[in-house]
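Recall the central idea of this unit: under ordinary conditions, the amino acid sequence of a chain determines the structure it adopts. In this exercise we apply that idea directly, starting from the sequence alone.
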Amino acid sequence: MNATGLVKYAGALVALAICSACAGGSAVAPSSATLNSQYIGRTLSLHGRLVTAARPSLTGLPRYPTFVPDRAAKANSKYFEYIINFYGTYASIFNYPTSNKQIGTIDNVGGQGCTNVLHGYGKKTFWIVAAYNQITEYTVPQTPIKTLSISDGSMPSSCAMNKAGDLAVGILDGTSSGDVVIYKNASGSGTFIKSPLAREYFDGYDNKGNLFFDGFTSAYSFALIELPVGSTHPRIITTSNAVQFPGSVQWDGRYLTVFDQIANKLFQYHIRGSKATLKGTVSFSGSNDCAQTWIAKGVVYCGDAGNDNGSVFSYPAGGSPLAVFTGNFDEPLGTVAAQK
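Accordingly, the structure predicted from this sequence is:
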């Protein structure tokens, strides 16, 4: 990795956020907290906790990833889980619950993933957002079939799909930092939607087609944003509890969920108007820093940048991991699951 290409990010707390936006706080109120941090290589010590803190230059990355032939995924697997590692590295492929051992690799990717269902296992395809020109759709287990790009070269950070097949991509950094791009039918050049965020981290659709995404405002405070279905004007959603650091946003079949990477908890919300009321809390133990989580049937997958692995928890029970994946990892940032 070229050290001159590194930009300091506070992300395993998705290894995605620029460190100046790492002060936590209430849902939308500006935070006056002092950031206590120092860098050790590409790792950031944030208030005494080690998190990853950099991303490489995105120039020069291939349009499509390459594969390692002797690590092709097993053809008889039905379910596939992907632990997506640091930018420019690889995604590790698993077939839990058949096994917790790695069965394949997609090289030259890194970042976050999403698929064509709101929760559960995607149907035959999934996406990896690895760079501004590497938003790639795959058929399981690892064949690329389509690539989209961000037209102004901004740094994408997340993706989500609604029931109609539209793809939403969040922008972390660059010209359109904090905004989202909507690709109708997951194609074309996309429509840019301005948002109140300075940095966008995660996004997810609910069952009505409303898009929710989180990140930090210019005041370095956490904020949850909604883009109502059919609208081009996002609005701030006030949470009834404080979220310290943005985590995955996903519909679980009943509630909109937001993961807090510092608290290591997943919050379940009922949304009414511009308010999100906390209805439940799922606590994880044994994980260190779930950069992205993905809720499937009865489980939630965690790309654990802190422990440098992937883990599986019961959902909505939480608690200790049901399984810990074994294989090759390089600061996991993302996870997603799909089936044949």
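The longest strand covers residues 275-283.
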